[in-house]
Amino acid sequence: MTPRVEHTDVGAYALGLLEESDRRAFESHLADCLACTAELADLSGVARALTGVDPVVEEPPEPHEIADLLRRKRASDRRARRGTLVIGAAAAVTLVATGVTVGAAMNGPSVVHAAHDMGPAEQFYAMGEPIAGVGAGGVRGGLVLEDKGWGTHAALMLAGVKGPLACELLAVSATGERRVMTGWSVPPSGYGVPGSPSPLYMHGGSPFTRAQIDRFEVRTTNGRTLLTFDL
Questions:
Q1: Which has the least CB within 10 A, 9, 33, 76, 177?
Q2: Which own/partner pairs from 5-11 qualify as long-range (CB within 8 Å, at least 24 positions apart)?
């Protein structure tokens, strides 16, 4: 026997077969090892049954006793392996979840959204504070604005709309001048509706500064207003 303590010493310890130095080393190990403690409890019944049995030199131990010890050892090994796999999987999930959370805290919401393969419009929208739009017929949406040296950058979220439609996002100045910021098509299945629950995210720009803009509108190309965002 070597001074190195092994989990496989449980059976020998239960039967009192360890040498004194190994026994002391194993007892020290046992104080901190829940797996060996549980296995020792399993083997205690067999050990008590064998108490007082003199060693037999000419004949091997009873087969059923050895078989019982081996069966219990194999079962214990399987439990230990399963426990290791479960703990490892749980740790992996925890590390992944923690990594995303820490990344979000350090680098901002864009890290989380990038992990979901979101487009730039959706990422920009998620980082801002949306202005709610006023719509009709179940149309809803939000708008996030950003001041730029060249004017105003906007990200739009649109839902509750079915097509086919051709739409535009417009910036309307205080003097009533309209500037198209971006345009898109709505398919027949629509966006943010039953059967097609994902909303649409678009972004665009206007040469108007925020101070020059009175409101934003989402309109169809035939002149119907779907949403209005008042500033």
A1: 177
A2: 5/29, 7/33, 7/35, 7/36, 7/39, 7/80, 8/73, 10/36, 10/39, 10/40, 10/43, 10/73, 10/76, 11/43, 11/69, 11/73
The C-alpha angle with vertex 176 and arms to 172 and 178, in degrees rounded to 5, equals: 45
Give helix then strand counts, H and E, for the chain: 6, 9
Please tell me which residue, 112 or 10, carries the higher pLDDT value.
Answer: 10
Sequence letter at residue 37: T
* Cα–Cα distance, 123 to 111 (Å, whole number): 9
| CA–CA gap between residue 124 and residue 157 (Å, rounded) | 11
Query: Is the Cα dihedral 206, 207, 208, 210 positive or negative?
Result: positive
* Amino acid making up residue 66: I
User: Model confidence over 12-69: pLDDT tens digits?
Assistant: 777 777 778 777 887 777 777 777 776 767 666 655 555 555 544 445 555 666 666 6
Whether pTM exceeds 0.85: no
pLDDT at 50: 52
Mean pLDDT score of the chain, rounded to an integer?
Answer: 76
pLDDT in tens, 129-139: 999 999 988 99
Asked if 113 contacts 119 with a C-beta cutoff of 8 angstroms, the reply is no
Order of strands across the sheet with 200-206? 131-132, 140-148, 151-159, 200-206
